[in-house]
Amino acid sequence: MIPDLSDPRWKRVLTSNSDLSSASLATRILISRLRREVAEAPTALAGKIGELRDFVTKNPFALSDAAKF
Length: 69
Fold this sequence. Notes:
Elements: H1 8-15, H2 25-40, H3 45-58, H4 60-66
Helix pairs in contact: 2-3, 3-4
């Protein structure tokens, strides 16, 4: 099951420097980009959470990555 947009794990993964080494390469690349963008513009966090959730929704392999957030 994919967490709701309001789930705090989405915010935590985008605002922390947690280790992503167990995630797939595609997920790591996306999260790295989103973290950079959120750091530059914190007000964009909600949109970036939506982007990450959409990625997980469209890519079944990313669901196992999201379970580790």
